[in-house]
Design brief:
Elements (H helix, E strand, L loop, with lengths): L7 H7 L5 E3 L5 H9 L6 E5 L5 H9 L3 E4 L13
Parallel strand pairs: 1-2, 2-3
Length: 81
């Protein structure tokens, strides 16, 4: 049985949509790795943010898809500097 955290696990189990994580804060990579425990198709949208080599290695090892700048248009639009 999956733990219930803010109803995320129920949504991940019953949804056909891959969970996506936007990198907006330092815990985003951790969240993507956590979601990967519950779903096979996790996508991390990094925008213009750089990931540490160790973070990339962990994400790649668990087959978490990563999308970087360019795929989201202007990654800084609407974000505080």
């Amino acid at each position: 049985m999956l733990p219930l955290i803010h109803s995320w696990s129920a949504a991940l189990v019953t949804s056909d949509v891959a969970p996506c994580v936007l990198v907006t804060e330092p815990m985003a990579v951790h969240k993507a790795l956590m979601f990967r425990q519950w779903s096979a198709g996790v996508v991390l949208f990094a925008g213009g943010h750089q990931l540490e080599p160790q973070q990339r290695d962990e994400l790649e090892a668990l087959d978490v898809a990563m999308v970087f700048a360019g795929a989201l248009g202007s990654p800084r639009r609407g974000m505080p500097k």
